[in-house]
Write a structure and sequence with these properties.
two-stranded antiparallel sheet; mainly alpha; single chain; 56% helix; 174 residues
Length: 174
């Protein structure tokens, strides 16, 4: 009843029930209907769930641009999962322009909320130099439990965990 009275959390909850089939028949089209109503009212979880439905083509035609839009709305409201997915979208060019710096931006925010996937992806960016500058990499290469600083050497970089990266120039963004 609350969902029908435009109460966004109830609409998002009802969408979740239709998506999972909990208490009602599983119906992604109906789930999307309720997610969309709640998402348009600013419900973060509904925005995230609607983004997932759009990305996977559940209950709606698959649309990476629409998915990226809803993930970004949730990300801007501090949803760590949506922030991580927004980073991946920028990294892979899914629904948005490929932009490694934007990927790093979103992964940094999600990693700050202890999102393990974002932390892993961010580490890979620092290891490969994608989306970060040499200065950024140097500033962040500090082992947190010992405080030991690792120096990035131009030419060949050997990281403490054994990952090697070849660099051709120290004055370019990589």
């Amino acid at each position: 009843k609350a969902a029908e009275q435009n109460y966004a959390p109830a609409q998002a909850n009802l969408g979740g029930h239709y998506a999972s089939g909990q208490g009602v028949g599983k119906d992604y089209t109906e789930a999307v209907k309720w997610y969309r109503q709640a998402a348009e009212r600013g419900d973060t979880e509904a925005q995230y769930s609607l983004g997932a439905c759009c990305a996977e083509g559940r209950g709606v035609a698959q649309d990476e641009v629409e998915a990226a839009k809803w993930f970004r709305k949730a990300a801007e409201q501090n949803h760590a999962g949506a922030q991580a997915i927004s980073g991946t979208a920028h990294h892979e060019g899914r629904g948005v322009a490929k932009d490694y710096a934007q990927a790093v931006k979103w992964w940094l925010v999600a990693a700050g909320q202890n999102h393990a996937g974002a932390q892993f992806n961010l580490a890979a960016c620092y290891a490969t130099g994608r989306g970060v500058t040499l200065k950024d990499a140097e500033a962040r290469l500090v082992e947190p439990w010992t405080g030991q600083k690792w120096t990035l050497v131009i030419g060949q970089t050997k990281w403490p965990f054994g990952y090697e990266v070849n660099q051709s120039s120290g004055d370019r963004e990589f």
